[in-house]
């Protein structure tokens, strides 16, 4: 008997229930502490890091991804995309930010901060003993009421998408949120570019028709708009400028076709060596002569241009431009009205593109080839961006892309809301009134939703270096008195409030509408989780460990 009990004492039982059925190495978490509270700690740390990026005076993050590429940006979607996140809550927040970026092109930081505030407030309610069901119901009721109130806060409507002043008014706030101080200049460039490529029926606006070319050097105010395309490359031949260009675009190497098999040729005399390549040269000359007879004076090639072909192209005064990117070739075809050819043959009349002028220039010690058109015939425009550093150019490029996406968004819904935190504070005050008089337990969720909306204008004030409590008290009093357009004055010696509608600080309606919806759905999804089951990672070599002395010089290491 003693031996029997000794053997049984060494047996370690497996926990009953679901963990007993899982494969070895699989992790299982249950209960609020393991499934929600532990993940919310990581979520709050991430949101706290991104809070400083919100608003026009927000600071940038320097992110170095796994490939060593550096990103200097305040764009939440870019930061989250380049970070290698493993926490499930953080990954869900990243998905919400990416969805907002795809749908509207703006408001990613808004979604992250609102969702983070809602999760933090939900944690307080859960620790106080309120059931998850009531919190979810309160959040859903508050979201539904906020979306119902949102159309009533509209202060401006974009009536004419071709009016420069109206478009400039609609884009100024979005562009200024990335490059504060240059918003008027850049907004005018974006507005002019969008109006030029807008179709005649004002529908089906394509943001890809607005290209950007980033050239370091100069200042942001040196940026300009070119009606056509700018390629960062050089002309291959001796011809550097062509007026009234007729263009053929080839997506293949330009030259004699090479032999597939390798062989050895024996020459018995100098005459045989001299006459060896005359056949191919004669064939190449006939091809280029046929191309020249069609009126072609500019040749764009997507591959290598052979020396023999370049010799005859120079003889017939045909300008040669080599473009390595297939995407730029397709965009160039759209800009000049040409057809991408797959073989070295003379183009048909309908396959030839036309351009007013093609010339080679030098901007900031970088050679470029410009395909210049006039505004009535060019469907593609290029914004030539200048800046002191590459990081500055990236920020300007992000501001341009956000402005273009907002213009596209206004084609679906032209309504605009007051910015500078006015919309969030107006919704917060009205939801607070609803929560105070709601009879059920859902009122706690409604009140916390109201408090979460206040964190957005508070973050604007904090990043601007203003006294948060003083500014928030002023703006809340104004909204309680019925002035729903009151926002935060971010610049100036004295902190205070402004009328966002009169100061032309406007946000797109759809960006706020979808941002509130996405943030609420993300939080409700997380609150619905009761258990977490993590499978064992697949096999393979272990990743190389980090060098603890990565920030030291090599010669200083032991």
What does this protein look like?
Helices cover 46% and strands 16% of the residues. With 558 residues, the chain is α+β, with helices and mostly antiparallel strands. The protein has two domains: 27-154 and 418-534, GROEL, domain 1 (Orthogonal Bundle), CATH 1.10.560.10; 228-373, 3-Layer(bba) Sandwich (GroEL). Helix 7 (132-149) crosses helix 16 (442-463). The radius of gyration is 31 Å and the shape is elongated.
Summarize the structure.
This protein is of the alpha+beta class. 46% of the residues lie in helices and 16% in strands.
Examine the coordinates and then state which fold CATH places here, giving the name of the CATH topology of the largest domain: GROEL, domain 1
Top CATH class of the largest domain: Mainly Alpha
Termini separation comes to 62 Å
Instruction: Work out the strand percent.
Output: 15-25%
CATH H-tier superfamily of the largest domain: GroEL-like equatorial domain
Q: Radius of gyration in whole Å, from Cα? A: 31 Å
> How helical, in percent, are the residues?
40-55%
Largest beta-sheet characterization = 7 strands, mixed
Number of domains: 2
> What gross morphology would you assign?
elongated
